C-alpha cells in the first residue's frame, strides 16, 4: 500500500471496509482483540479514571473488612511479641513454620509480575500490555509483605539489628557468608529494581492523570509525573530505560527465588539439600505468581468494570501460560521426587513416608491442585476464557502451591536424621491469624493502590492500538502488528 | 527580536508529518521543534532525525561501579575488619561473594540507568512548559520556538494543515529549564547520604556510644559449674542406670537375705554361663570366653560395689553390657551375690 489512508484520520477512527462481509469480520476482530478495538484515548482514559475515583459503599465495606484482617495481623503480632514465640506451634524440629512458608509464598507470587512485564516486553508479546501493571503491583506488594515475615518470625523483633552484617561493640558478628544475607540482598535489589521498573512505565500515565483529574490528585500526579509531556526525546529515553531495566531485572528475578531456595538447600536437612531446588523454586514461583495475576485480573475486571481492557484473549493467554508452568512444575517435582526415592537414604525415606502417611491429606491435595486441576482443564479454550472457571483454577493453584511450601518447610523439618527429633507440626492460632491477616493486608494495599494509580497502563494499550492494523488477506481480515522502529 | 512559542494540535499523523515537512522547508532548526504525543512515535514515523540522547552506558557503568564498591566493601573489607572463620573457608570465599557482587552490581546498574534517565530529561521540571492536556487525549502537539516573523509563517503552516487548535505565546513565559533541578537532586542526595551515613558511623564505632547491652552484662556461668540444685519435685524420676561422672546415681541395696536370694537367681540366669555357678569361670560358655575371670579372687573382692555395678551395667572388653537384662535394683542384688560368692566358696 503506497497510500496510507489510515493516517489521515486518528488511529482510533479507521473506517470500516465497504464490503459487508469484511465489515462484519472487522467488527468481530474488534470484539475479540483489545488492540484493534481502538477508541478515542479521551474515552479510554476516562474509563480508567472514573473507575479510579469511584469509591462506592461496597469499596469502603471491603476496606473495612480487609482493614479488620490487617488489624488482626498486627494485633496478633504484638501479642506474639509480648508472650514470645512459645504461643505458636513451632517446636524444636519445626522451627520454620507458616511464617517462612508465607515468606516463600509471597516472594513467589511476586515473581510473575516482573516476568510478565519484562520478559514478555522484550519478546514483544502484546497480550502483556493491559496486564503488565496489575502484575507489577502484585510483585511490589508481594515482596513488601514477604519482607515482613522474617521480622514476624524473629520473636524479639527489636533485636533485628543483631542479624545485620554490621559489627558493633555488641561483639556479636553474624555470618557474612550466610544464605540469609544473600537472601536479604537479593530481595532488596529486586524490590528496588521492580519499583524503578514500575515507576518508569507509570510516568506517562501519571502525566495523563495529571491532565484529567482535579484537586489533590492533580497536585500529587503533577509532582510524581515530574513534568512529563510526551516529547519524542522523553519517549525514546523511556523506551531505552525500560529495555535496560528489563534486561537487568530478569536475571535478578531468577536470582531472588534461587536464593530463597538456597535458604533451604544450603542446610544439610534431608529433603532440602538438593541441587535442583533453585530452578524448582523458580518454576513454582512463576506458577503461583501467574495464578495470582489471573485472580487479580478477574477481580479488577469485575470490580472496576475493566471489561474493555481485560478481555477473553488475555485470560486465554494467561491460561496457556499457567498450563505450561503446571507441566514444568510437574516435571521438576517428579525429578526431585524420583532422585530422592531412588537414593532411599533413611532420613529421606522417612520424609517420603511422612508424605504418604501423616501428611497424606496435604500431599494428595497438593498434587490434585497443582497437577490434576490445571492439566485437566486448561487445555480447553472454553475453560481458559471463562472467568469463573479461571478463578477457581487459579485459587486451586494457589492452595496447591501454598501446600507445597508447607510440606517443604514444616513437613520436611519434622523428619530428620535423629528419629527422637521427629515432631509433627500443627499451627496454633497466632500463625493462622497472622497468615490470614497478611492475605487481607495484601488485598487492602492492592485495592487502595487501584484507586491511586491507573492500574492499566493506558499508554501501553494506546501504543499497541496505534500499531495494530486490520489488513485484508484474501477474503479475511487479519489483525497485524506493525513495528515502526 | 522577541521570541515566541507556538503549539499546534493535530489529530492525525498525516497532518503532523506534513507540518513538520513544511517547517523544515521554512528552515526552522530541528532543535526548536518538539513533537508531543500520548504514544511513542518513532522519529522515522514522524520523518524526523533520530532524537539526540546521551548514551545511557556511562550512567549504567557508573552504577555498576558504585554497586561493585558497596559489594566489595561487604565481602572483602568488613570480614577483614572483624574476622571470623566459618566452615574453614577463606574470609572472602568466591561463591557467596559472587552472589553479593551480582546483586549489588545489578542494583547499581538499574539505579544508574534510572538516574541517567532523570538527569537527561531534566526531571523534575520546575518551570512552565508549553503543553496542552489534550495531548494525553490523543492529539499530537507540535511546539515551535521562533522569532515573531518566523512565528507568523509557522502559524500559517499550522492553519494550512487544519490545526485543531493553536496556542501562541511569548517565549519569555516559557524559560528553558535551568540547572535548578540539579540542585534539587543534589539536595536529595545529601539528605540520603546523611541518612545512610549516620547509622554507619555508629555501626563501625566511629561514634562510640556505650550502649546498654544485656547480653554482655548477664552473669556468665561455666559448663557444669556448681552448685548443683536439687531436682525439682515434678521432674521425671530416673529409671534404669543413670551414671553421673561415671558413678551410679543410685544407692546400693543392703545385702539382706531376700536380696541375696534374688541375686542368686539373677546370677544363675545372667552370669553363670560365663563365670560359672560358683563364680569359678567354668560355665558352659567358657570355651568361647576363656578370659572370663574367676569372681572369687581378691581382685574382685577388692573392688568397690560401684565398680562391679559399672562392669555389669556397661560391660567390659568382651563382657557385654547387661543393663538391658537387669534393672538398677536387680543389678545391686547381683552385686551383693557376687560378694557373697567368695564367702560361700571358703
Describe the structure.
- The complex is a heterodimer of chains A (485) and B (346).
- Chain A has 485 residues and is an all-alpha fold.
- Chain A has helices spanning 20-32, 41-53, 57-83, 98-122, 132-146, 148-154, 179-212, 216-224, 232-265, 277-303, 312-343, 346-356, 360-377, 381-384, 387-413, 429-450, 458-466, and strands spanning 468-469, 472-473, 476-477, 480-481.
- In chain A, strands 1-4 form a two-stranded antiparallel sheet.
- In chain A, β2 and β3 form a beta hairpin.
- The longest helix of chain A is centred in the middle third of the chain and has 34 residues, at 179-212.
- Chain B is rod-shaped, with a radius of gyration of 48 Å.
- The mean pLDDT of chain B is 86.
- At the A-B interface, α2, α7, α9 and α17 of A face α1, β2, α2, α3 and α4 of B.
Share in helix of chain A: 55-70%
Cα(first) to Cα(last) distance of chain A is 19 Å
Radius of gyration of chain B using CA atoms only: 48 Å
Q: What is the radius of gyration of chain A?
A: 25 Å
* Widest beta sheet: strand line-up of chain A: 1-4
Task: Report the major sheet of chain A.
Answer: 2 strands, antiparallel
Q: What global shape of chain A is seen?
A: globular
Question: Which band does the percent of strand residues of chain A land in?
Answer: under 5%
In short:
The complex is a heterodimer of chains A (485) and B (346). Chain A is mostly helical. Chain A has 17 helices and 4 strands.
Amino acid at each position: 500500500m503506497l497510500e496510507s489512508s489510515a493516517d489521515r484520520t486518528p488511529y482510533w477512527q479507521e473506517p470500516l471496509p465497504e464490503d459487508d462481509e469484511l465489515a462484519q469480520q472487522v467488527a468481530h476482530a474488534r470484539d475479540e482483540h483489545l488492540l484493534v478495538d481502538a477508541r478515542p484515548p479521551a474515552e479510554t482514559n476516562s474509563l480508567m479514571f472514573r473507575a479510579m475515583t469511584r469509591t462506592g459503599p461496597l469499596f469502603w465495606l471491603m476496606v473495612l473488612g480487609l482493614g479488620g484482617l490487617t488489624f488482626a495481623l498486627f494485633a496478633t503480632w504484638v501479642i506474639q511479641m509480648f508472650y514470645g514465640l512459645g504461643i505458636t506451634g513451632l517446636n524444636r524440629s519445626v522451627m520454620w513454620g507458616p511464617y517462612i512458608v508465607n515468606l516463600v509464598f509471597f516472594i513467589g507470587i511476586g515473581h510473575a509480575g516482573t516476568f510478565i512485564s519484562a520478559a514478555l516486553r522484550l519478546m514483544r508479546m502484546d497480550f502483556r500490555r493491559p496486564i503488565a501493571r496489575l502484575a507489577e503491583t502484585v510483585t511490589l506488594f508481594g515482596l513488601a509483605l514477604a519482607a515482613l515475615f522474617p521480622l514476624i518470625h524473629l520473636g524479639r523483633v527489636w533485636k533485628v539489628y543483631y542479624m545485620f552484617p554490621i559489627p558493633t561493640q555488641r561483639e556479636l558478628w553474624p555470618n557474612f557468608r550466610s544464605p540469609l544475607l544473600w537472601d536479604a540482598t537479593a530481595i532488596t535489589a529486586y524490590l528496588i529494581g521492580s519499583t524503578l521498573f514500575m515507576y518508569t512505565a507509570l510516568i506517562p500515565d501519571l502525566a495523563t492523570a495529571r491532565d484529567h483529574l482535579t484537586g489533590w490528585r492533580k497536585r500529587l500526579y503533577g509532582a510524581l509525573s515530574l513534568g512529563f509531556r510526551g516529547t519524542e526525546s522523553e519517549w525514546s529515553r523511556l523506551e531505552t530505560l525500560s529495555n535496560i531495566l528489563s534486561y537487568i531485572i530478569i536475571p535478578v528475578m531468577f536470582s531472588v527465588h534461587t536464593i530463597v531456595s538456597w535458604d533451604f538447600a544450603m542446610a544439610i536437612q534431608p529433603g532440602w539439600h538438593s541441587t535442583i531446588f533453585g530452578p524448582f523454586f523458580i518454576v513454582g514461583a512463576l506458577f503461583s505468581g501467574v495464578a495470582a495475576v489471573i485472580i487479580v485480573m478477574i477481580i479488577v475486571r469485575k470490580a472496576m468494570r475493566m471489561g474493555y481492557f481485560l478481555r477473553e484473549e488475555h485470560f486465554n493467554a494467561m491460561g496457556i501460560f499457567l498450563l505450561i508452568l503446571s507441566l514444568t512444575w510437574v516435571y521438576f517435582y517428579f525429578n526431585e521426587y524420583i532422585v530422592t526415592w531412588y537414593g532411599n537414604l533413611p532420613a529421606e525415606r522417612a520424609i517420603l513416608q511422612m508424605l504418604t502417611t501423616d501428611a497424606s491429606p496435604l500431599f494428595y491435595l497438593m498434587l490434585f491442585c497443582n497437577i490434576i486441576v490445571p492439566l485437566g482443564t486448561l487445555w480447553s479454550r472454553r475453560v481458559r476464557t471463562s472467568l469463573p472457571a479461571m478463578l477457581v483454577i487459579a485459587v486451586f493453584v494457589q492452595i496447591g502451591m501454598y501446600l507445597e511450601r508447607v510440606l517443604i518447610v514444616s513437613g520436611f523439618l519434622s523428619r530428620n536424621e535423629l528419629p527422637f527429633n521427629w515432631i509433627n507440626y500443627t499451627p496454633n492460632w497466632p500463625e493462622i491469624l497472622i497468615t490470614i491477616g497478611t492475605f487481607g493486608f495484601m488485598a487492602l494495599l492492592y485495592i487502595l493502590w487501584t484507586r491511586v494509580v491507573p492500574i492499566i497502563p493506558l499508554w501501553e494499550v494506546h501504543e499497541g492500538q496505534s500499531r495494530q492494523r486490520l489488513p485484508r488477506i484474501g477474503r479475511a481480515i487479519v489483525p497485524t502488528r506493525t513495528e515502526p522502529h | 527580536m522577541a521570541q515566541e512559542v507556538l503549539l499546534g494540535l493535530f489529530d492525525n499523523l498525516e497532518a503532523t508529518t506534513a507540518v513538520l515537512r513544511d517547517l523544515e522547508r521554512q528552515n526552522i532548526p530541528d532543535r526548536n521543534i518538539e513533537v508531543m504525543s500520548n504514544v511513542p512515535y518513532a522519529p522515522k514515523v514522524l520523518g524526523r532525525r533520530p532524537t539526540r540522547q546521551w548514551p545511557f552506558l556511562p550512567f549504567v557503568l557508573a552504577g555498576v561501579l558504585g554497586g561493585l564498591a558497596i559489594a566489595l566493601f561487604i565481602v572483602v573489607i568488613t570480614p577483614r575488619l572483624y574476622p571470623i572463620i566459618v566452615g574453614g573457608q577463606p574470609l572472602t570465599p568466591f561463591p557467596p561473594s559472587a552472589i553479593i557482587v551480582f546483586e549489588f552490581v545489578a542494583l547499581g546498574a538499574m539505579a544508574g540507568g534510572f538516574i541517567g534517565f532523570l538527569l537527561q530529561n531534566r526531571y523534575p521540571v520546575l518551570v512552565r512548559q508549553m503543553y496542552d492536556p489534550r495531548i494525553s487525549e490523543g492529539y499530537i502537539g507540535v511546539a515551535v520556538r521562533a522569532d515573531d516573523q518566523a512565528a507568523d509563517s509557522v502559524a500559517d503552516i499550522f492553519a494550512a494543515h487544519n490545526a485543531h487548535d493553536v496556542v501562541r505565546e511569548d517565549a519569555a513565559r516559557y524559560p528553558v529549564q535551568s540547572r535548578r533541578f540539579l540542585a534539587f537532586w543534589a539536595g536529595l542526595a545529601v539528605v540520603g547520604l546523611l541518612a545512610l551515613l549516620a547509622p554507619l558511623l555508629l555501626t563501625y564505632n566511629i561514634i562510640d556510644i556505650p550502649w546498654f547491652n544485656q547480653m554482655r552484662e548477664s552473669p556468665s556461668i561455666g559448663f557444669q559449674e556448681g552448685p548443683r540444685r536439687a531436682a525439682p519435685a515434678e521432674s521425671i524420676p530416673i529409671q534404669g542406670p543413670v551414671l553421673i561422672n561415671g558413678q551410679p546415681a543410685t544407692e546400693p541395696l543392703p545385702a539382706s537375705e531376700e536380696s541375696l536370694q534374688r541375686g542368686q537367681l539373677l546370677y544363675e540366669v545372667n552370669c553363670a554361663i560365663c563365670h560359672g555357678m560358683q563364680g569359678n569361670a567354668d560355665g558352659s560358655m567358657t570355651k568361647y570366653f576363656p578370659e572370663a575371670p574367676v569372681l572369687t579372687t581378691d581382685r574382685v573382692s577388692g573392688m568397690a560395689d560401684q565398680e562391679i555395678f559399672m562392669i555389669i551395667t556397661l560391660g567390659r572388653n568382651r563382657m557385654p553390657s547387661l543393663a538391658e537384662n537387669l534393672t538398677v535394683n536387680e543389678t545391686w542384688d547381683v552385686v551383693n551375690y557376687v560378694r557373697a560368692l567368695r564367702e560361700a566358696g571358703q
